[in-house]
Amino acid sequence: MPEGPTIVLMKENLQKFVGEKVVSAVGNSGIDNELLINKKLKEIRLYGKQTYLIFDKVSVKIHLLMFGSYEIDEQTKPDKSLRLGLNFKNGKALFYTCSVKMVDDDILKTIDWEADVMSDNWNPKNTKKKLKAEPKMMVCDALMNQEIFSGVGNIIKNEVLFRVGVHPESEVGNLPLKKLNELLTGARNYSFDFLKWKRTDELKKHWQIYHKKICPKCGQTVIKKNIGKGKRTSFYCEKDQKLY
């Protein structure tokens, strides 16, 4: 599943269409494509893994889900996987195997934009407040909760927990204040590191624990286990990551 930093890159690639009108719209997402024709793309807003294309009087939410992808200008994938294709005078934006939904302005007003860890408006105080309200939640679930850490995915979760030395099954309420603060800072900082490494196509080179078999700190075997509510895979070292 694409994580927040990947979606930031997608926004950057789509930016050339802001201010342009849709010439034609195709795709099998189920939305009324005709409603987008002649609409000007006013803005692109991100909420973690979700992208909002904001037009005149209508907006489109795109979520790449587990296997979604996009292309700019050139179509290389089959039409059957094309959920939405937007043609502008200066090119086209194509979205495949993803969720595409129409949303109205009222929905946009209910989104907590401050929860996006890569946003300039990210509010760590509010994030900490949400964490403290869920003392029994495992930290692996907390980091993957998009209402708390919007944009964080499984790679970021694993790498951050290893860097701060916290076992993924630790309960939020048991974390010392210092570790709680490290979790907040780590999630944001690693997200921007992720973005930097993604730009240069060297993300995997910097993985310390994700998909590793041996801990780089102590040489002990890395544990691979599906844990938490979502049963997402966690990689961790029992020696270097403390269970709180």
TrEMBL record:
GO biological process: base-excision repair
Coiled-coil portions: none
A GO term, aspect molecular function: oxidized purine nucleobase lesion DNA N-glycosylase activity
Domain called FPG-type: residue spans: 208-242
Record-linked PROSITE patterns: FPG_CAT, ZF_FPG_2
PANTHER family tied to this protein: FORMAMIDOPYRIMIDINE-DNA GLYCOSYLASE
Protein name: Endonuclease
Source taxonomy: Bacteria, Pseudomonadati, Bacteroidota, Flavobacteriia, Flavobacteriales
